[in-house]
Design a protein that fits this description.
It contains one helix and eleven strands; from the N terminus they run ββββββαβββββ.
């Protein structure tokens, strides 16, 4: 097994082979899954994670929940207000190894005009030389946030009690990154 401390260099997220997704509870009984299809990001690190830094920028208008009406509602002022805040950003503030195959990444997540710290544990899923000679690494991670903490407050009460959209949102990351020469 490769130790995450052994990597150094500059890596670019391959958005075509990565996913930034989310899960919300809907009507108290089921889950709605979605993803952002347009994003970019970089990771830079020296040996033993010295000076490690991750930056990600997401185009919020690329939200995809497999329902056009819901996607359109998510871009309005009720939720993301993409006319004023077209991007979600993440900038790491601390990256450490939490064992040989896990990175613990803490950073500033900005949604709308609100920035809050989040911590995500990323499990290393492998390294490979792809058919084009590029070094490709994979990481998977997840965390949860309270959407109201970021000004995403719209909701509707249900007749039988409860609300239409959960406050707790799971964020899921499946990342493929390519080492830059």
């Amino acid at each position: 097994m490769t130790n995450v401390n052994n990597y150094s260099g500059n890596f670019q997220i391959d958005a075509a082979h990565s996913e930034i997704g989310f899960v919300a509870r809907h009507a108290m009984v089921t889950k709605v899954r979605g993803a952002f299809t347009d994003f970019e990001g970089t990771a830079t690190t020296g040996e033993k994670l010295e000076g490690a830094k991750i930056e990600v920028k997401i185009d919020v208008n690329s939200v995809d929940t497999r329902n056009a009406d819901r996607d359109a509602h998510l871009t309005t002022g009720d939720f993301f207000d993409t006319e004023k805040y077209p991007h979600i950003t993440f900038t790491s503030t601390d990256i450490t190894a939490a064992g040989e195959s896990t990175l613990r990444v803490t950073g500033d997540l900005t949604i709308k005009d609100v920035t809050k710290p989040v911590t995500i544990d990323f499990d290393f899923t492998g390294e490979v030389q792809d058919p084009w000679g590029q070094t490709r690494v994979g990481f998977e991670g997840s965390t949860s946030i309270n959407r109201r903490d970021f000004g995403l407050e719209w909701n509707t009460a249900l007749d039988g009690g409860g609300v239409l959209v959960s406050e707790k949102i799971a964020l899921n990351f499946d990342i493929s990154a390519v080492k830059q020469s």
